[in-house]
Amino acid sequence: MASESSACETSAHSAIECVKDNESSSPDVDVLRANITDERHACSWVEDYGLKTNTSWVVDFVKPTAKCERMVFHKVWRCKEAKREKSCGEAAAHCPAKIDLKIKKVNRNTKRNDAFLRGEKPLPAVIKLFHHKNHSHSTAAADALSRLTPTMQTRETFLAYFDSGMSPAEATRLHESKLLVQEDGYALVANSAVNPLPPAIYYWHRLCREKNFGKDVDPLLKIAEMPLYAKHGNLRVWTIFCKITLQTAFSTT
Fold it and tell me: Organism's domain of life (predicted)?
């Protein structure tokens, strides 16, 4: 009925147990059962799966379960390449791969018809991997790796760099140096899931700056306000504010 599956080895969380449901699986759909019990761990599992398989997943469907008697969670992800249109030199992807993950309630009624809920350690999560072995695009080419979505862990790592005072360029150099000393370092550097592209890095840097200093202000606009401050006798306040604004603006370079 159940067996180990390579897809079950994707989680970085040792507490997550996962087996393949052979009876429910088919040539196009692998069905896994896992002891995932909430949305946070479900989303983390999908991200770990994407990291191991060089794929990125976007939410396609969320089913409300507040009034559901048999489920506490149900969400469907599609491969990020599912809706990629044709571009110069490339055919449209329209990848059919998707992940359907639901978490069942564990009670007398659900246990009655589900052997995976009756064990000593119930496996309430039902993970269906559709066409996961038949993506319509490469998952190993450099171009494919560069289109992967950065993981939450990668995002948190860069925000920590910025909180310590690093610029985007400094953070990028440090991060790549850490990746290069790891096994398969050059492959990691080419993988945008762990080594994001500049647009993502600069976006995170802007978020960090706005959190700590507020939104950016154009220094030229503040200079234009000098006559107004002088008229009301607040020239010293204007001078201090402009100094802070200029220091903040030039710190990004």
Answer: Eukaryota
